[in-house]
Design a protein that fits this description.
100 residues, mainly beta, four-stranded mixed β-sheet, three-stranded antiparallel β-sheet, 7 strands, 0% helix
Length: 100
């Protein structure tokens, strides 16, 4: 959730974790992993409408992660425009992951 900076979650090896991050369509901004996680593998990214299908409308970017190993780590997501190479991200979200 966007308003839970530093959220924590516990999962089990073999689970699939869906992380839903709000975004505005048509702005060029996307969420991406800023680091390569060691405990999970990104399988795919989907987009779901929150309200109406209008340019600039709020959507959720749904990042699917397959949990592959036990341990703890921080997964960091950045909200940026990939074509703006030297600018800091507009937003950063951290998920504290514990895998049992």
């Amino acid at each position: 959730s966007e308003n839970k900076q530093g959220a924590s979650i516990t999962a089990h090896k073999g689970d699939t974790l869906q992380v839903k991050l709000p975004m505005n369509s048509g702005t060029g901004y996307v969420w991406e992993l800023s680091n390569k996680p060691h405990l999970c593998i990104q399988s795919n990214t989907e987009y779901e409408d929150v309200k109406k299908r209008l340019p600039g409308a709020t959507m959720n970017e749904v990042v699917n992660l397959r949990i592959a190993a036990k341990g703890q780590e921080d997964i960091i997501f950045i909200y940026h425009r990939p074509f703006e190479k030297n600018l800091p991200p507009a937003k950063t979200k951290t998920l504290h992951l514990t895998v049992q």
